Fold this protein.
Amino acid sequence: MAIKYSNYMKKVNNIYLGIYEKALPDCFNWEERLGLAKKAGFSFMEISIDESDQRLERLKWDIAKQERLKKAVAETGMPLLTMCLSANRRFPIGSSYPDIQRRGMEILEDAIWFAFSIGIRIIQIAGYDVLMGDEESTEESRERFGLNLVKNVVLASKLGVTLAIENVDVEFGSSIEKLLYYVNRINSPWLQLYPDIGNLAAMNQDVLKQLKLGQSHIVAVHVKDTKEGVVRRVPYGEGIVDFVPAFECLKKIGFDGPLLLEMWASDGGDNFKTIKKANEWISKIAKKVWT
């Protein structure tokens, strides 16, 4: 008797919801941060390797520091499933400046090794080819981005780490369609897409059309609300993102991967209460769609 795999998938389907590290302030250590995320109802956390020297230093951690992080993950039962590697916004791998390009490549290589060591499955690569505000995106910079990406995909494939490009707030990487060019060109299972539906809306993209174009290549999704030209710190439900049709589209194209709430802590107020409320708000919508 043939097994009905589609029916089986319906039975095991669950919402796997994560939270961005920066949703909680830096005053917390890893045990506290992971514990609070779990208490708020999340299933995983996304670690940030951003442009700051403080977070870039993590990529050079010795074994002892890495082991302390892995111990925190083990003791809290809260995995670090994904990495938001936004550092290449400061050090883009398509830059015409040799020193910046070289540093960007070093960061990406270090990030792959770090993910391999910690157990992180997916590295989100921000879709910037040149230094914002200093360089113009050109045919040459776009070609450099692709060629340098190939080199890192080779390393990632050997270590079993998935690289996934995120659409961002500049024309070069403003849509899934543009970034899909590199995924198709490189044609490796270790290079995929990590769409940000908030960024798509903020850049006046047709969100549903773009998600459909990424079918079978989307490994995770950034979930945030935005306004036109405003891509950060917009409370859920106060922006222009229409989450119900976006989630319905993801379901229709067969996406069952992790959803990540991209949020930033505020100096005032109760950040734990804020992320818990966001979890409940998004989960309510997602569960209606995926059940």
Notes: The first strand starts at residue 17 and ends at 20. The CA atoms of residues 125 and 165 lie 5 Å apart. Residues 13-290 form a domain with the TIM Barrel fold (CATH 3.20.20.150).
